[in-house]
Amino acid sequence: MAVTEVTDATFEDIVLKSEVPVMVDLWAVWCGPCRMIHPIIEELSEEFAGKALMTKLDVDTNRKTAMKYGIRNIPTVLFIKNGEVIDKQVGAVPKKKFQEKLEAIL
Question: Alpha-carbon distance 16 to 13, whole Å?
Answer without folding.
Answer: 6
